[in-house]
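Technical note accompanying the year-one report. For the benefit of new consortium partners, we illustrate the data format agreed upon in the data management plan: each record pairs a sequence with a C-alpha coordinate string. No post-processing was applied to the example shown here.
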Amino acid sequence: MRDELEKLAIAGKIGSKHIDPLLTLAQGGYCAHKSWGFGRITTVDTVFCQFTIDFQGKPGHKMDLSFAAESLKSIPADHILAKKAADLHGLRQMAARDHLGVIRLVLNSYGGKATLDQIQKELVPDVITDDWKKWLEVAKREMKKDGHFIVPLKKTEPILYQAQETTVQQRVMDKFKAAKGLKARITEAAELLKNVDDLDNKAAVVGEAIATLNAEITSHQRTQPALALEAVFLRDELRKAAGLTPAEGELTEIALWNQGLKLGQLLDGMPAAKHRRALDSFKEATPTLWYEAVIGTLNNVSAKLAGECAAMLMENGKLDLLRETLARLISQHQASSDLLLWLAKERSDTFADILGPEVFRAMVSAIERDIFNEKKSNKLRDFILADHELLPELISSADIEVVKDLTRSLQMSPSFDDMDRRSLLARIVKVFPIVKELITGEATKQDHTFIVSWESLERRRAEYDDLCKKRIPANSKDIALARSYGDLRENHEYKAAKEMQKVLMRRKSELEVQLNRARGTDFANVRTDVVSIGTKVNVHDVNNQKGVTFKVCGAWDSDPDNGIIAYLSPIGQALLNHPVGDEVEFELQGTKHKFRIDAIEALPPAPKPPEHAEAEVPAPAAS
Protein backbone atom coordinates (compact mmCIF):
# COMPACT_ATOMS: atom_id res chain seq x y z
CA MET A 1 0.00 0.00 0.00
CA ARG A 2 2.85 2.39 0.79
CA ASP A 3 4.42 1.72 -2.61
CA GLU A 4 1.23 2.70 -4.37
CA LEU A 5 0.90 5.87 -2.36
CA GLU A 6 4.52 6.81 -3.05
CA LYS A 7 3.90 6.37 -6.80
CA LEU A 8 0.90 8.71 -6.52
CA ALA A 9 3.11 11.23 -4.74
CA ILE A 10 5.79 11.00 -7.47
CA ALA A 11 3.07 11.53 -10.08
CA GLY A 12 1.99 14.65 -8.22
CA LYS A 13 -1.50 13.32 -7.47
CA ILE A 14 -0.98 13.55 -3.69
CA GLY A 15 1.59 15.31 -1.55
CA SER A 16 4.39 13.36 0.09
CA LYS A 17 3.11 14.61 3.47
CA HIS A 18 -0.16 12.77 2.81
CA ILE A 19 1.40 9.30 2.57
CA ASP A 20 1.58 8.46 6.29
CA PRO A 21 -1.89 9.83 7.17
CA LEU A 22 -3.44 7.96 4.22
CA LEU A 23 -1.63 4.77 5.14
CA THR A 24 -2.94 5.02 8.73
CA LEU A 25 -6.48 5.65 7.47
CA ALA A 26 -6.39 2.76 5.01
CA GLN A 27 -4.96 0.28 7.50
CA GLY A 28 -7.32 1.33 10.32
CA GLY A 29 -10.42 1.31 8.13
CA TYR A 30 -12.32 3.85 10.26
CA CYS A 31 -12.33 7.63 10.34
CA ALA A 32 -14.08 10.71 11.67
CA HIS A 33 -15.01 13.95 9.88
CA LYS A 34 -15.82 17.13 11.81
CA SER A 35 -19.11 17.58 9.93
CA TRP A 36 -20.17 14.10 8.83
CA GLY A 37 -19.04 12.23 11.94
CA PHE A 38 -17.92 8.62 12.08
CA GLY A 39 -17.26 6.71 8.84
CA ARG A 40 -16.04 3.36 7.60
CA ILE A 41 -13.58 3.26 4.68
CA THR A 42 -14.91 0.60 2.35
CA THR A 43 -12.54 0.94 -0.66
CA VAL A 44 -9.19 2.57 -1.50
CA ASP A 45 -8.96 3.38 -5.23
CA THR A 46 -5.40 4.35 -6.21
CA VAL A 47 -6.39 4.55 -9.89
CA PHE A 48 -8.93 7.33 -9.39
CA CYS A 49 -7.07 8.50 -6.28
CA GLN A 50 -10.04 8.35 -3.87
CA PHE A 51 -11.58 6.68 -0.82
CA THR A 52 -15.15 5.37 -0.65
CA ILE A 53 -16.52 5.99 2.83
CA ASP A 54 -19.78 5.04 4.51
CA PHE A 55 -20.61 7.96 6.80
CA GLN A 56 -23.70 7.87 9.01
CA GLY A 57 -26.45 9.23 6.78
CA LYS A 58 -24.01 9.55 3.84
CA PRO A 59 -23.13 6.05 2.58
CA GLY A 60 -20.86 5.45 -0.44
CA HIS A 61 -19.31 8.92 -0.27
CA LYS A 62 -16.32 9.45 -2.65
CA MET A 63 -13.45 11.55 -1.29
CA ASP A 64 -10.20 12.66 -2.94
CA LEU A 65 -7.17 11.19 -1.18
CA SER A 66 -5.45 14.52 -0.62
CA PHE A 67 -8.61 15.99 0.88
CA ALA A 68 -9.10 12.85 2.98
CA ALA A 69 -5.56 13.08 4.39
CA GLU A 70 -6.17 16.65 5.56
CA SER A 71 -9.81 16.42 6.73
CA LEU A 72 -10.16 12.94 8.25
CA LYS A 73 -9.01 11.65 11.61
CA SER A 74 -8.09 7.98 11.80
CA ILE A 75 -10.13 5.92 14.27
CA PRO A 76 -8.26 2.87 15.65
CA ALA A 77 -9.92 -0.53 15.42
CA ASP A 78 -10.10 -0.77 19.23
CA HIS A 79 -11.98 2.55 19.51
CA ILE A 80 -15.57 2.34 20.82
CA LEU A 81 -16.89 3.79 17.53
CA ALA A 82 -15.03 1.15 15.51
CA LYS A 83 -16.21 -1.61 17.83
CA LYS A 84 -19.84 -0.50 17.41
CA ALA A 85 -19.47 -0.48 13.63
CA ALA A 86 -17.66 -3.84 13.43
CA ASP A 87 -19.52 -5.93 16.02
CA LEU A 88 -22.40 -4.19 17.76
CA HIS A 89 -24.00 -7.47 18.81
CA GLY A 90 -20.78 -8.65 20.46
CA LEU A 91 -20.43 -5.30 22.21
CA ARG A 92 -23.95 -5.62 23.62
CA GLN A 93 -23.13 -9.07 24.98
CA MET A 94 -19.96 -7.67 26.52
CA ALA A 95 -21.95 -4.89 28.20
CA ALA A 96 -24.27 -7.47 29.75
CA ARG A 97 -21.51 -9.55 31.35
CA ASP A 98 -18.50 -7.23 31.64
CA HIS A 99 -19.45 -3.72 32.79
CA LEU A 100 -15.87 -2.70 33.51
CA GLY A 101 -14.65 -3.94 30.15
CA VAL A 102 -17.06 -1.67 28.31
CA ILE A 103 -16.26 1.32 30.55
CA ARG A 104 -12.54 0.70 30.02
CA LEU A 105 -13.09 0.58 26.26
CA VAL A 106 -14.79 3.98 26.29
CA LEU A 107 -12.16 5.54 28.59
CA ASN A 108 -9.28 4.26 26.44
CA SER A 109 -11.05 5.67 23.38
CA TYR A 110 -10.95 9.09 25.07
CA GLY A 111 -7.32 8.93 26.21
CA GLY A 112 -7.93 7.25 29.56
CA LYS A 113 -10.67 9.53 30.91
CA ALA A 114 -14.28 10.46 30.10
CA THR A 115 -17.24 12.07 31.84
CA LEU A 116 -20.48 10.20 32.51
CA ASP A 117 -22.16 12.22 29.75
CA GLN A 118 -19.51 11.12 27.24
CA ILE A 119 -19.83 7.50 28.31
CA GLN A 120 -23.63 7.64 28.07
CA LYS A 121 -23.46 9.26 24.62
CA GLU A 122 -21.31 6.40 23.29
CA LEU A 123 -23.30 3.55 24.88
CA VAL A 124 -26.95 4.68 24.79
CA PRO A 125 -29.01 3.54 22.96
CA ASP A 126 -26.75 1.49 20.66
CA VAL A 127 -25.00 -0.69 23.26
CA ILE A 128 -27.13 -0.24 26.40
CA THR A 129 -30.68 -0.71 25.14
CA ASP A 130 -32.43 -1.19 28.48
CA ASP A 131 -32.26 0.74 31.78
CA TRP A 132 -29.13 2.91 31.60
CA LYS A 133 -29.39 4.14 35.21
CA LYS A 134 -29.60 0.61 36.58
CA TRP A 135 -26.67 -0.51 34.42
CA LEU A 136 -24.59 2.48 35.50
CA GLU A 137 -25.24 1.89 39.21
CA VAL A 138 -23.87 -1.64 38.91
CA ALA A 139 -20.89 -0.37 36.90
CA LYS A 140 -20.14 2.31 39.51
CA ARG A 141 -20.11 -0.21 42.34
CA GLU A 142 -17.71 -2.41 40.37
CA MET A 143 -15.45 0.54 39.50
CA LYS A 144 -15.17 1.58 43.15
CA LYS A 145 -14.08 -1.90 44.12
CA ASP A 146 -11.67 -2.20 41.19
CA GLY A 147 -8.31 -0.57 41.76
CA HIS A 148 -7.92 0.85 38.24
CA PHE A 149 -10.78 3.35 38.17
CA ILE A 150 -11.03 6.71 39.92
CA VAL A 151 -14.66 7.79 40.16
CA PRO A 152 -15.08 11.48 41.13
CA LEU A 153 -17.84 12.81 43.39
CA LYS A 154 -19.02 15.36 40.82
CA LYS A 155 -20.77 14.08 37.71
CA THR A 156 -19.12 16.73 35.55
CA GLU A 157 -15.60 15.52 36.38
CA PRO A 158 -14.11 12.67 34.29
CA ILE A 159 -13.76 9.06 35.38
CA LEU A 160 -10.09 8.04 35.13
CA TYR A 161 -8.54 4.71 34.24
CA GLN A 162 -5.01 3.97 35.45
CA ALA A 163 -2.93 0.96 34.61
CA GLN A 164 -1.47 0.71 38.11
CA GLU A 165 -4.00 -0.71 40.57
CA THR A 166 -4.72 1.04 43.88
CA THR A 167 -6.90 -0.35 46.68
CA VAL A 168 -10.08 1.36 47.84
CA GLN A 169 -8.44 2.01 51.20
CA GLN A 170 -5.40 3.65 49.65
CA ARG A 171 -7.50 5.73 47.28
CA VAL A 172 -9.98 7.15 49.82
CA MET A 173 -7.33 7.80 52.48
CA ASP A 174 -5.02 9.54 50.01
CA LYS A 175 -7.86 11.88 49.06
CA PHE A 176 -8.82 12.40 52.73
CA LYS A 177 -5.25 13.31 53.70
CA ALA A 178 -4.83 15.60 50.71
CA ALA A 179 -8.04 17.56 51.48
CA LYS A 180 -7.46 21.20 52.45
CA GLY A 181 -9.61 22.50 55.30
CA LEU A 182 -12.43 20.97 57.33
CA LYS A 183 -15.09 21.39 54.66
CA ALA A 184 -13.03 19.40 52.14
CA ARG A 185 -12.21 16.79 54.79
CA ILE A 186 -15.93 16.33 55.51
CA THR A 187 -16.53 15.63 51.82
CA GLU A 188 -13.79 13.01 51.70
CA ALA A 189 -14.84 11.55 55.07
CA ALA A 190 -18.33 11.03 53.61
CA GLU A 191 -16.73 9.09 50.76
CA LEU A 192 -14.76 7.07 53.29
CA LEU A 193 -18.03 6.23 55.09
CA LYS A 194 -19.55 4.97 51.83
CA ASN A 195 -16.61 2.62 51.28
CA VAL A 196 -16.05 1.58 54.89
CA ASP A 197 -17.02 -2.05 54.24
CA ASP A 198 -14.39 -2.36 51.49
CA LEU A 199 -11.47 -1.23 53.65
CA ASP A 200 -8.66 -3.70 54.31
CA ASN A 201 -8.15 -2.50 57.90
CA LYS A 202 -11.37 -0.79 58.87
CA ALA A 203 -10.55 0.02 62.48
CA ALA A 204 -7.13 1.50 61.80
CA VAL A 205 -8.19 3.63 58.82
CA VAL A 206 -11.35 4.98 60.45
CA GLY A 207 -9.46 5.60 63.71
CA GLU A 208 -6.90 7.69 61.85
CA ALA A 209 -9.65 9.70 60.09
CA ILE A 210 -11.49 10.28 63.38
CA ALA A 211 -8.33 11.58 65.06
CA THR A 212 -7.85 14.07 62.22
CA LEU A 213 -11.50 15.17 62.39
CA ASN A 214 -11.33 15.62 66.18
CA ALA A 215 -8.41 18.01 65.82
CA GLU A 216 -10.27 19.99 63.14
CA ILE A 217 -13.51 20.05 65.20
CA THR A 218 -11.69 21.52 68.21
CA SER A 219 -10.10 24.29 66.14
CA HIS A 220 -13.39 25.18 64.37
CA GLN A 221 -15.84 24.94 67.30
CA ARG A 222 -16.03 28.72 67.82
CA THR A 223 -15.06 30.15 64.45
CA GLN A 224 -17.24 27.84 62.32
CA PRO A 225 -19.61 25.98 64.69
CA ALA A 226 -21.92 24.76 61.88
CA LEU A 227 -19.01 23.07 60.12
CA ALA A 228 -17.74 21.66 63.41
CA LEU A 229 -21.17 20.17 64.22
CA GLU A 230 -21.43 18.63 60.74
CA ALA A 231 -18.00 17.06 61.29
CA VAL A 232 -19.17 15.68 64.65
CA PHE A 233 -22.15 14.01 62.96
CA LEU A 234 -19.92 12.40 60.35
CA ARG A 235 -17.29 11.38 62.90
CA ASP A 236 -19.92 9.58 64.99
CA GLU A 237 -21.29 7.80 61.92
CA LEU A 238 -17.79 6.62 60.98
CA ARG A 239 -17.17 5.35 64.50
CA LYS A 240 -20.46 3.44 64.50
CA ALA A 241 -19.71 1.89 61.09
CA ALA A 242 -16.29 0.72 62.25
CA GLY A 243 -17.49 -0.44 65.68
CA LEU A 244 -15.15 1.88 67.61
CA THR A 245 -15.62 3.57 71.00
CA PRO A 246 -15.42 7.34 71.60
CA ALA A 247 -12.01 8.82 72.29
CA GLU A 248 -11.47 10.39 75.70
CA GLY A 249 -12.06 14.15 75.84
CA GLU A 250 -13.46 14.58 72.32
CA LEU A 251 -16.14 17.22 71.69
CA THR A 252 -19.72 15.94 71.54
CA GLU A 253 -22.89 17.38 69.98
CA ILE A 254 -24.27 18.36 73.38
CA ALA A 255 -21.01 20.07 74.35
CA LEU A 256 -21.14 22.16 71.18
CA TRP A 257 -24.77 23.19 71.76
CA ASN A 258 -23.99 24.10 75.38
CA GLN A 259 -21.61 26.76 74.09
CA GLY A 260 -24.67 28.89 73.33
CA LEU A 261 -24.97 28.26 69.59
CA LYS A 262 -27.93 30.05 67.96
CA LEU A 263 -30.15 27.54 66.21
CA GLY A 264 -31.14 29.66 63.21
CA GLN A 265 -27.63 30.89 62.41
CA LEU A 266 -26.17 27.42 62.77
CA LEU A 267 -28.79 25.82 60.52
CA ASP A 268 -28.18 28.44 57.83
CA GLY A 269 -24.54 27.42 57.78
CA MET A 270 -25.26 23.73 57.18
CA PRO A 271 -26.28 21.88 54.02
CA ALA A 272 -30.02 21.17 53.74
CA ALA A 273 -29.42 17.42 54.01
CA LYS A 274 -28.15 17.91 57.56
CA HIS A 275 -30.92 20.18 58.86
CA ARG A 276 -33.11 17.49 60.36
CA ARG A 277 -30.10 15.82 61.95
CA ALA A 278 -29.15 19.15 63.52
CA LEU A 279 -32.69 19.75 64.80
CA ASP A 280 -32.80 16.31 66.43
CA SER A 281 -29.41 16.98 67.96
CA PHE A 282 -30.60 20.33 69.36
CA LYS A 283 -33.70 18.67 70.86
CA GLU A 284 -31.51 16.07 72.56
CA ALA A 285 -29.23 18.80 73.97
CA THR A 286 -32.13 21.00 75.20
CA PRO A 287 -34.96 18.55 75.96
CA THR A 288 -37.20 20.98 77.87
CA LEU A 289 -37.15 24.20 75.84
CA TRP A 290 -36.17 23.01 72.35
CA TYR A 291 -39.57 23.80 70.82
CA GLU A 292 -39.41 27.46 71.88
CA ALA A 293 -36.18 27.90 69.92
CA VAL A 294 -37.61 26.06 66.91
CA ILE A 295 -40.74 28.24 66.96
CA GLY A 296 -38.51 31.34 67.21
CA THR A 297 -36.49 30.13 64.22
CA LEU A 298 -39.47 29.32 62.03
CA ASN A 299 -39.92 32.84 60.64
CA ASN A 300 -36.24 33.47 59.92
CA VAL A 301 -35.15 30.53 57.77
CA SER A 302 -35.61 29.24 54.23
CA ALA A 303 -38.89 27.69 53.06
CA LYS A 304 -37.38 24.19 53.05
CA LEU A 305 -35.95 24.58 56.55
CA ALA A 306 -39.26 26.04 57.77
CA GLY A 307 -40.85 22.80 56.58
CA GLU A 308 -38.30 20.74 58.54
CA CYS A 309 -38.99 22.80 61.67
CA ALA A 310 -42.76 22.41 61.23
CA ALA A 311 -42.46 18.66 60.67
CA MET A 312 -40.42 18.28 63.83
CA LEU A 313 -42.94 20.29 65.88
CA MET A 314 -45.86 18.22 64.57
CA GLU A 315 -44.10 14.91 65.17
CA ASN A 316 -43.47 15.90 68.78
CA GLY A 317 -47.03 16.96 69.66
CA LYS A 318 -46.61 20.72 69.13
CA LEU A 319 -49.13 21.13 66.30
CA ASP A 320 -51.39 23.50 68.27
CA LEU A 321 -48.42 25.72 69.13
CA LEU A 322 -47.37 25.72 65.47
CA ARG A 323 -50.87 26.65 64.28
CA GLU A 324 -51.15 29.38 66.88
CA THR A 325 -47.79 30.85 65.82
CA LEU A 326 -48.66 30.73 62.13
CA ALA A 327 -52.06 32.35 62.73
CA ARG A 328 -50.49 35.15 64.77
CA LEU A 329 -47.74 35.88 62.25
CA ILE A 330 -50.26 35.89 59.39
CA SER A 331 -52.84 38.07 61.13
CA GLN A 332 -50.15 40.60 62.08
CA HIS A 333 -48.63 40.47 58.57
CA GLN A 334 -45.27 39.51 60.07
CA ALA A 335 -44.89 36.12 58.35
CA SER A 336 -41.78 35.96 56.16
CA SER A 337 -41.85 35.26 52.43
CA ASP A 338 -40.14 31.90 53.01
CA LEU A 339 -42.56 30.82 55.73
CA LEU A 340 -45.56 31.73 53.55
CA LEU A 341 -43.97 29.97 50.58
CA TRP A 342 -43.67 26.78 52.63
CA LEU A 343 -47.28 27.10 53.84
CA ALA A 344 -48.50 27.66 50.26
CA LYS A 345 -46.63 24.58 49.04
CA GLU A 346 -47.75 22.47 52.02
CA ARG A 347 -51.40 23.55 51.90
CA SER A 348 -52.56 20.42 53.72
CA ASP A 349 -55.77 19.94 55.69
CA THR A 350 -53.64 20.15 58.83
CA PHE A 351 -53.65 23.93 58.38
CA ALA A 352 -57.12 24.24 56.85
CA ASP A 353 -58.34 26.60 59.57
CA ILE A 354 -55.45 28.98 58.78
CA LEU A 355 -55.55 28.86 54.99
CA GLY A 356 -57.88 31.69 54.08
CA PRO A 357 -57.88 35.13 52.43
CA GLU A 358 -55.69 36.58 55.19
CA VAL A 359 -52.87 34.28 54.03
CA PHE A 360 -52.93 35.87 50.59
CA ARG A 361 -53.07 39.35 52.09
CA ALA A 362 -50.03 38.44 54.24
CA MET A 363 -48.27 37.17 51.10
CA VAL A 364 -48.79 40.49 49.33
CA SER A 365 -47.48 42.33 52.41
CA ALA A 366 -44.42 40.06 52.59
CA ILE A 367 -43.61 40.62 48.91
CA GLU A 368 -43.93 44.38 49.37
CA ARG A 369 -41.74 44.21 52.48
CA ASP A 370 -39.04 42.27 50.57
CA ILE A 371 -39.16 44.53 47.54
CA PHE A 372 -35.42 45.19 47.87
CA ASN A 373 -34.65 41.49 48.41
CA GLU A 374 -35.71 40.20 45.01
CA LYS A 375 -34.55 36.64 45.63
CA LYS A 376 -37.02 36.18 48.48
CA SER A 377 -39.94 38.11 47.03
CA ASN A 378 -39.55 36.58 43.57
CA LYS A 379 -39.81 33.02 44.88
CA LEU A 380 -43.12 33.68 46.60
CA ARG A 381 -44.49 35.84 43.78
CA ASP A 382 -43.51 33.27 41.13
CA PHE A 383 -45.19 30.49 43.09
CA ILE A 384 -48.40 32.51 43.50
CA LEU A 385 -48.53 33.15 39.74
CA ALA A 386 -47.61 29.58 38.77
CA ASP A 387 -50.06 27.78 41.08
CA HIS A 388 -53.44 28.64 39.56
CA GLU A 389 -55.33 26.85 42.35
CA LEU A 390 -53.74 28.69 45.29
CA LEU A 391 -55.70 31.96 45.24
CA PRO A 392 -59.11 30.34 44.51
CA GLU A 393 -58.57 27.87 47.37
CA LEU A 394 -57.65 30.64 49.82
CA ILE A 395 -60.74 32.76 49.05
CA SER A 396 -63.31 30.07 48.23
CA SER A 397 -65.10 30.23 51.61
CA ALA A 398 -64.51 33.93 52.31
CA ASP A 399 -67.18 36.56 52.86
CA ILE A 400 -67.86 38.69 49.78
CA GLU A 401 -66.86 41.90 51.57
CA VAL A 402 -63.51 40.36 52.53
CA VAL A 403 -62.98 39.34 48.91
CA LYS A 404 -63.82 42.86 47.72
CA ASP A 405 -61.34 44.34 50.17
CA LEU A 406 -58.68 41.85 49.06
CA THR A 407 -59.38 42.76 45.43
CA ARG A 408 -58.85 46.46 46.16
CA SER A 409 -55.57 45.69 47.95
CA LEU A 410 -54.36 43.65 44.98
CA GLN A 411 -55.30 46.44 42.56
CA MET A 412 -53.20 48.94 44.51
CA SER A 413 -50.24 46.66 45.25
CA PRO A 414 -46.95 47.52 43.47
CA SER A 415 -45.78 43.92 43.82
CA PHE A 416 -47.23 42.70 40.51
CA ASP A 417 -46.99 44.11 37.00
CA ASP A 418 -50.17 44.76 35.05
CA MET A 419 -50.29 41.42 33.26
CA ASP A 420 -49.70 39.37 36.42
CA ARG A 421 -52.21 41.48 38.36
CA ARG A 422 -54.87 40.89 35.69
CA SER A 423 -54.18 37.17 35.87
CA LEU A 424 -54.73 37.12 39.66
CA LEU A 425 -57.85 39.29 39.43
CA ALA A 426 -59.26 36.92 36.80
CA ARG A 427 -58.85 34.04 39.27
CA ILE A 428 -60.82 35.99 41.87
CA VAL A 429 -63.58 36.77 39.35
CA LYS A 430 -63.82 33.08 38.46
CA VAL A 431 -64.76 32.31 42.08
CA PHE A 432 -66.70 35.52 42.77
CA PRO A 433 -68.12 36.95 39.50
CA ILE A 434 -69.62 39.87 41.43
CA VAL A 435 -66.20 41.50 41.91
CA LYS A 436 -65.85 41.95 38.14
CA GLU A 437 -67.84 45.18 38.46
CA LEU A 438 -65.44 46.38 41.16
CA ILE A 439 -62.48 45.66 38.87
CA THR A 440 -63.82 47.01 35.58
CA GLY A 441 -66.20 49.64 36.87
CA GLU A 442 -68.68 48.44 34.25
CA ALA A 443 -72.06 48.38 35.98
CA THR A 444 -75.43 49.51 34.73
CA LYS A 445 -78.65 50.10 36.58
CA GLN A 446 -80.10 46.98 35.06
CA ASP A 447 -77.10 44.98 36.23
CA HIS A 448 -77.66 46.09 39.82
CA THR A 449 -81.40 46.02 40.36
CA PHE A 450 -84.35 43.84 39.52
CA ILE A 451 -87.95 43.76 40.65
CA VAL A 452 -89.35 40.93 42.77
CA SER A 453 -92.59 40.21 44.54
CA TRP A 454 -92.69 40.61 48.32
CA GLU A 455 -93.51 36.92 48.68
CA SER A 456 -90.45 35.74 46.73
CA LEU A 457 -88.27 38.27 48.52
CA GLU A 458 -89.38 36.86 51.87
CA ARG A 459 -88.53 33.34 50.70
CA ARG A 460 -84.98 34.41 49.82
CA ARG A 461 -84.66 36.30 53.10
CA ALA A 462 -85.77 33.21 54.99
CA GLU A 463 -83.19 31.08 53.15
CA TYR A 464 -80.48 33.63 53.96
CA ASP A 465 -81.43 33.70 57.66
CA ASP A 466 -81.48 29.91 57.78
CA LEU A 467 -77.97 29.82 56.29
CA CYS A 468 -76.52 32.40 58.68
CA LYS A 469 -78.24 31.26 61.87
CA LYS A 470 -78.49 27.50 61.46
CA ARG A 471 -76.72 25.78 58.58
CA ILE A 472 -73.37 27.64 58.66
CA PRO A 473 -73.01 27.47 62.49
CA ALA A 474 -73.94 23.78 62.36
CA ASN A 475 -71.31 23.23 59.67
CA SER A 476 -68.68 25.01 61.80
CA LYS A 477 -69.45 22.60 64.66
CA ASP A 478 -69.13 19.66 62.25
CA ILE A 479 -65.68 20.91 61.17
CA ALA A 480 -64.53 21.34 64.76
CA LEU A 481 -65.80 17.88 65.71
CA ALA A 482 -64.19 16.26 62.67
CA ARG A 483 -60.89 18.02 63.41
CA SER A 484 -60.87 16.48 66.88
CA TYR A 485 -60.72 13.01 65.32
CA GLY A 486 -57.03 13.44 64.50
CA ASP A 487 -54.95 13.21 61.31
CA LEU A 488 -56.71 15.53 58.85
CA ARG A 489 -54.99 13.96 55.83
CA GLU A 490 -57.07 10.79 56.25
CA ASN A 491 -60.09 12.41 57.93
CA HIS A 492 -62.99 11.97 55.48
CA GLU A 493 -65.53 13.58 57.83
CA TYR A 494 -63.38 16.71 57.99
CA LYS A 495 -62.96 16.88 54.20
CA ALA A 496 -66.71 16.46 53.66
CA ALA A 497 -67.49 19.19 56.19
CA LYS A 498 -64.99 21.55 54.52
CA GLU A 499 -66.53 20.89 51.10
CA MET A 500 -69.96 21.66 52.53
CA GLN A 501 -68.55 24.87 54.01
CA LYS A 502 -67.54 26.00 50.51
CA VAL A 503 -71.04 25.26 49.20
CA LEU A 504 -72.74 27.12 52.05
CA MET A 505 -70.45 30.14 51.86
CA ARG A 506 -70.86 30.33 48.09
CA ARG A 507 -74.66 30.28 48.46
CA LYS A 508 -74.46 32.92 51.21
CA SER A 509 -72.47 35.16 48.90
CA GLU A 510 -74.96 34.63 46.05
CA LEU A 511 -77.92 35.47 48.29
CA GLU A 512 -76.23 38.61 49.62
CA VAL A 513 -75.71 39.87 46.08
CA GLN A 514 -79.27 38.96 45.04
CA LEU A 515 -80.94 40.47 48.10
CA ASN A 516 -78.93 43.65 47.77
CA ARG A 517 -80.08 44.09 44.17
CA ALA A 518 -83.71 43.06 44.63
CA ARG A 519 -86.47 45.69 44.77
CA GLY A 520 -89.69 44.44 46.35
CA THR A 521 -93.05 45.50 44.91
CA ASP A 522 -96.78 44.83 45.39
CA PHE A 523 -97.57 45.39 41.66
CA ALA A 524 -99.90 48.30 42.49
CA ASN A 525 -100.66 51.15 40.04
CA VAL A 526 -99.11 49.41 37.04
CA ARG A 527 -99.50 50.64 33.49
CA THR A 528 -102.01 48.73 31.37
CA ASP A 529 -101.62 50.57 28.05
CA VAL A 530 -98.62 48.32 27.45
CA VAL A 531 -97.51 45.04 28.97
CA SER A 532 -95.86 45.84 32.34
CA ILE A 533 -94.62 43.98 35.39
CA GLY A 534 -97.76 43.06 37.32
CA THR A 535 -100.13 42.68 34.37
CA LYS A 536 -102.23 39.80 33.06
CA VAL A 537 -101.87 39.45 29.27
CA ASN A 538 -104.18 37.55 26.94
CA VAL A 539 -102.38 36.54 23.76
CA HIS A 540 -103.26 34.60 20.62
CA ASP A 541 -100.78 32.04 19.29
CA VAL A 542 -100.55 32.89 15.59
CA ASN A 543 -99.15 29.47 14.70
CA ASN A 544 -101.82 27.23 16.25
CA GLN A 545 -104.65 29.81 16.65
CA LYS A 546 -104.98 29.15 20.40
CA GLY A 547 -105.45 31.68 23.17
CA VAL A 548 -103.00 31.83 26.12
CA THR A 549 -102.93 33.92 29.30
CA PHE A 550 -99.72 35.05 30.99
CA LYS A 551 -99.22 36.80 34.33
CA VAL A 552 -96.01 38.86 34.08
CA CYS A 553 -94.54 38.96 37.61
CA GLY A 554 -91.22 39.55 39.43
CA ALA A 555 -87.78 38.14 38.61
CA TRP A 556 -88.14 35.28 41.14
CA ASP A 557 -91.74 34.36 40.24
CA SER A 558 -92.19 31.42 37.92
CA ASP A 559 -95.03 28.89 37.66
CA PRO A 560 -95.49 28.09 33.93
CA ASP A 561 -98.28 25.58 34.61
CA ASN A 562 -100.40 28.41 36.04
CA GLY A 563 -99.30 30.98 33.47
CA ILE A 564 -97.00 32.89 35.89
CA ILE A 565 -93.81 34.04 34.18
CA ALA A 566 -90.87 36.18 35.34
CA TYR A 567 -90.45 39.44 33.49
CA LEU A 568 -86.80 38.54 32.82
CA SER A 569 -87.76 35.28 31.07
CA PRO A 570 -87.64 35.15 27.23
CA ILE A 571 -91.46 35.37 27.02
CA GLY A 572 -91.60 38.22 29.55
CA GLN A 573 -88.91 40.21 27.75
CA ALA A 574 -90.68 39.73 24.42
CA LEU A 575 -94.03 40.98 25.78
CA LEU A 576 -92.85 43.94 27.89
CA ASN A 577 -93.78 47.46 26.66
CA HIS A 578 -95.98 46.19 23.78
CA PRO A 579 -99.63 47.47 23.49
CA VAL A 580 -102.75 45.54 22.51
CA GLY A 581 -102.66 44.49 18.84
CA ASP A 582 -98.88 44.10 18.61
CA GLU A 583 -97.40 40.82 17.45
CA VAL A 584 -94.25 39.64 19.23
CA GLU A 585 -91.77 36.92 18.32
CA PHE A 586 -89.34 35.04 20.51
CA GLU A 587 -87.42 31.76 20.53
CA LEU A 588 -87.77 29.21 23.31
CA GLN A 589 -85.78 25.96 23.41
CA GLY A 590 -84.95 26.26 19.73
CA THR A 591 -88.56 26.83 18.62
CA LYS A 592 -89.80 30.16 17.30
CA HIS A 593 -93.13 31.49 18.63
CA LYS A 594 -95.37 34.37 17.49
CA PHE A 595 -98.09 35.86 19.70
CA ARG A 596 -100.65 38.64 19.13
CA ILE A 597 -101.56 40.66 22.24
CA ASP A 598 -105.36 40.72 22.65
CA ALA A 599 -105.84 42.25 26.13
CA ILE A 600 -103.91 43.71 29.08
CA GLU A 601 -105.17 44.16 32.65
CA ALA A 602 -103.61 44.78 36.07
CA LEU A 603 -103.06 41.94 38.50
CA PRO A 604 -104.56 42.32 41.99
CA PRO A 605 -102.01 44.09 44.26
CA ALA A 606 -100.05 41.73 46.51
CA PRO A 607 -100.16 42.58 50.23
CA LYS A 608 -96.95 44.10 51.58
CA PRO A 609 -95.54 42.39 54.70
CA PRO A 610 -95.92 44.58 57.80
CA GLU A 611 -92.16 44.82 58.44
CA HIS A 612 -91.71 46.45 55.00
CA ALA A 613 -94.40 49.12 55.38
CA GLU A 614 -91.86 51.98 55.34
CA ALA A 615 -89.15 50.69 52.99
CA GLU A 616 -89.32 48.66 49.81
CA VAL A 617 -85.59 48.06 49.34
CA PRO A 618 -83.97 45.49 51.65
CA ALA A 619 -80.22 45.64 52.17
CA PRO A 620 -78.88 42.54 53.91
CA ALA A 621 -75.30 43.27 52.89
CA ALA A 622 -73.44 46.45 51.99
CA SER A 623 -72.41 46.85 48.39
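Partners are asked to follow this layout when depositing records. The chain has 29 helices and 15 strands.
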